[in-house]
Specification:
844 residues, alpha/beta, five-stranded parallel beta sheet, three-stranded antiparallel beta sheet
Length: 844
């Protein structure tokens, strides 16, 4: 027996299948053997007392210098500083920063630690994605603190001993900052935090779970604001691309403003020969998976989007494989605000399983759960789930093409099932609106759900989106059924309708002009679909600026409808309504008013008092009342009608907004120009948001806002508004559209009112023959231009000519509009004024 000195023995057990070596030959033994090696060690020196060990001069515990390109995080840095500086109470002060992988949690912590390193006696960084790595980081701290005192003791200490010593040092000293980067589980850090009485701990983590029990309120780091994302890219790519803010913004949007993705893209563009911003955007479209995984020289290949955003997948799959199935499905939908109840329809899963899977995904910051501000189904609260677009992209690109298609089909089924059966009913609109982006993402073009969504968009007034969906429906029908199949023709008909409703009346008119002879040949001249196309051709002929032609088309169509469909058929009543509309637009407001008055009681009896078509007729009748000269009565009627529209159709339905527009006009026509101006200003915000800045209805509201701004006394602003509006109208609607011509009229008016009478006269002189050619010599707009031409003729000094022009105009107005119409009375007053002025100067 050999006596050993005090100290642990080092035992090396090697178990092999009887392997021995002799002169390079191998022999097989009869049994396993154990070889025990015993070595002698010197006694180990203990580590120095933790309470008295100082911090070595120049000790730096940060893993690298912070990034130079760091923008958009000033507020986050300030929040961290306030939390760690101002927190009160016993124990260590701890703050956790959580968020999606790649959002910049580690960089934020590094920037903070670097900026405030002089505020602490010690700053130390620990990679903390597991208990072993936390112990290793603490052991490294111990060796760094003791190497200058007793390097031998530091080297001899085991990891557990060194980590325990470091924890004792931290407990004994104030004034330090420790960063625990990428903590996976609260339980991994809880034992350490419980033993500390001083100092600051800054934690970064993806996990949004369990922090409350440590009395830590996590700080969630959000995506970069778009301007900051653009600035980050610009700083990385350098000139000349750094000046291309349009493409920089497009790339930031494509990458979802995720700092890791932005940095990866910027470095790739800057360091790859012949790579440009435009080329990178193209690559993101054609080979996205390759770009998500691309790392240039000098970039950590493990810190690319494709890897960082999937780091948690294996851990999640080990806990709940169904959660990965749910994440795959979520990758197919639109990124934001999917109603969680959609997932209740998944096969072989119940709502409890779905909820547990979502909770697990949220705990890893792969999804975000929020409460819906509205109940999609009355009486049932709803939660919404959002997924960053790059998490979606990377998740899908990990799947094989066949598996990807299976997942997409699986995502379509629950959305189709969740769409309401009655999308035109107002009560279903919140659900339809919430499901719309997700249905567009996953439903195939032939899915019945798309037709339901078009019905919803029609009822709620989102015509532009309806046109986009209808185009997909028509393209699918054309490819699968053929050009002249009845269903394809109906889809083509509907596409033309939504094109017009979305604001492109000229294209819609041309589409119907091309479609009508095909319908007459395939379906027949008096087929209901053919007659509907004739009706709609007239609608958009008028909408394209040809009011008299539209009126004549309806005059020819109405008796056919009465004979084929019946006098009180809804389509016949619609044609009667539209005949009255285009009679008015062609200039005969009195006849139009009488047509609406005769039609309204029939609509109320046949369709009901609150049917949308009945309400629209009421709106037009009130408008006719005002245009016939009774603005005060029209204002009262509009005021009473507005709450009915809001209740039945909704506050932002186009017909409701149209009524608000007419209410503002009536307000102005009763003499309150300032209130009307404010009403149009408020209305413009709604129309720009709901319809878009260049929708014809939005442009009409801009037109009226400019006019009543002038009428309220600000001629210069009115002139500027009309000057800015006219080229937009000419580009969007055309140079001879009614609204464009009206704006030319008004531009001339406010040019004169702003002090340039000669230019105003020239503008009216050029405009009048255009109006006479397009609208006719006796159209109200033409008469208004004649009135203004006469007025500015007088203003430039030709008093007798002004008098004579007003005298000729008065005869026309008395015959066309009536002797008591306000415009007629205004012309009579002007005639008297200029007659007096010409007499005083001896003119004529």
């Amino acid at each position: 027996m050999t006596l050993l000195p005090d100290g642990p023995e080092e035992r090396l057990d090697i178990r092999t299948k009887g392997v021995a070596r002799e002169q390079g030959r191998v022999y097989q033994a009869a049994r396993d053997q154990t070889i025990t090696q015993i070595t002698q060690q010197s006694p180990r020196r203990p580590l120095p007392p933790a309470g008295t060990a100082p911090v070595p001069a120049g000790l730096s515990g940060l893993p690298r210098r912070p990034a130079g390109a760091f923008v958009g995080r000033d507020a986050a840095l300030a929040d961290l500083r306030r939390t760690l500086r101002d927190a009160k109470g016993p124990g260590v002060i701890t703050q956790a920063v959580l968020g999606l992988g790649g959002v910049g949690k580690s960089e934020l912590a590094l920037q903070y630690a670097h900026h405030h390193r002089r505020d602490h006696d010690l700053v130390w960084w620990i990679d903390a994605d597991g208990p072993g790595r936390i112990r290793a980081g603490l052991a490294a701290l111990a060796r760094a603190l003791t190497c200058g005192i007793d390097s031998v003791a530091a080297e001899q200490a085991t990891m557990e001993e060194a980590a325990a010593w470091a924890l004792s040092w931290l407990a004994a000293h104030p004034g330090w900052l420790v960063v625990l980067d990428n903590v996976e589980e609260v339980a991994d850090v809880e034992p350490y935090l419980a033993r500390l009485a001083h100092g600051h701990v800054l934690i970064t983590t993806r996990r949004d779970i369990g922090w409350q029990r440590l009395n830590v309120t996590p700080f969630r780091l959000e995506l970069l604001p778009r301007p900051a994302a653009i600035a980050l890219l610009a700083g990385l790519v350098g000139p000349p691309d750094s000046a291309d803010t349009g493409r920089l913004g497009e790339l930031a949007a494509q990458l979802g403003d995720l700092p890791l993705a932005l940095t990866q893209a910027g470095a790739y563009i800057a360091r790859t020969p012949r790579m440009t911003l435009a080329a990178y955007l193209e690559l993101l479209t054609t080979v996205p998976a390759r770009m998500y995984a691309a790392a240039t020289a000098g970039v950590d290949a493990e810190r690319v989007v494709a890897k960082v955003l999937t780091l948690s997948h294996a851990r999640i799959a080990a806990v709940d494989p169904f959660a990965i199935d749910v994440l795959n499905l979520l990758a197919c939908f639109a990124p934001d605000n999917l109603p969680c109840s959609v997932l209740d329809g998944l096969p072989k899963a119940d709502p409890l399983q779905v909820g547990e899977a979502l909770a697990l995904l949220e705990s890893y910051s792969l999804i975000t759960l929020t409460s819906s501000p509205v109940e999609l189904v009355p009486g049932r609260p709803e939660d919404l789930v959002s997924v960053h677009r790059l998490v979606q992209a990377v998740t899908l690109h990990r799947l094989t093409p066949d598996r990807r298609e299976q997942v997409r089909a699986g995502a379509a089924e629950p959305v189709q099932a969740a769409l309401p059966d009655k999308p035109r009913t107002i009560g279903t609109w919140p659900a339809c609106r919430a499901l719309l982006p997700h249905a567009r993402a996953v439903l195939p073009a032939g899915a019945p759900g798309l037709h339901r969504l078009v019905d919803f968009l029609d009822a709620s007034g989102d015509y532009a989106t309806a046109a986009q969906l209808q185009e997909a429906i028509h393209t699918h029908a054309l490819a699968t059924l053929g050009a002249e199949h009845p269903d394809t023709l109906i889809a083509r008909h509907n596409l033309a309708w939504w094109t017009g409703e979305a604001g492109d009346a000229v294209t819609a008119r041309d589409q119907y002009t091309a479609l009508l002879p095909v319908l007459e040949r395939v379906l027949g001249v008096e087929h209901p679909e053919t007659l509907a196309a004739r009706n709609n051709l007239a609608v958009f002929t008028g909408g394209a600026g040809e009011a008299a032609t539209a009126r004549d088309q309806y005059t020819a169509l109405l008796p056919v409808l009465e004979r084929v469909l019946g006098v009180e058929h809804p389509n016949t009543l619609t044609a009667r309504h539209n005949l009255a509309v285009w009679t008015r637009e062609a200039g005969d407001v009195i006849t139009a008013r009488d047509q609406f008055a005769a039609l309204l009681p029939i609509l109320e009896r046949v369709l009901g008092a609150e049917h949308p078509n009945t309400l629209l007729a009421r709106n037009n009748l009130v408008r006719g009342t005002g245009e016939a000269g009774d603005a005060s009565t029209a204002l009262d009627q509009y005021t009473a009608l507005l709450p009915v529209f809001e209740r039945v159709l909704g506050a932002e339905h186009p017909d409701t907004v149209s009524l608000r527009h007419n209410l503002a006009r009536s307000t102005a026509e009763t003499g309150d120009a300032a209130t009307a101006r404010d009403q149009f200003a408020a209305l413009l915000e709604v129309r720009e948001r709901v319809l878009g800045a260049e929708h014809p209805a939005t442009l009409l509201t801009r037109h009226n806002l400019a006019w009543w701004t002038g009428e309220a006394g600000d001629a210069v602003t009115a002139l500027d508004q009309h000057t800015a509006l006219l080229p937009v109208l000419e580009r969007v609607l055309g140079a001879e559209h009614l609204t464009t011509l009206a704006t030319r009229n008004n531009l001339a008016r406010w040019t004169g009112e702003a002090g340039d009478a000669v230019t105003a006269l020239d503008q009216y002189t050029a405009l009048l023959p255009v109006l006479e050619r397009i609208l006719g010599a006796e159209h109200p707009a033409t008469l208004a231009a004649r009135h203004n031409l006469a007025a500015w003729t007088g203003e430039v000094g030709d008093l007798a000519a002004a008098r004579d022009q007003f005298a000729a105009l008065l005869q026309v107005r008395e015959r066309v509009q009536g002797t008591g119409h306000p415009d007629t009375l205004t012309t009579r007053d002007q005639l008297a004024y200029w007659t007096e002025q010409a007499g005083e100067t001896g003119g004529g």
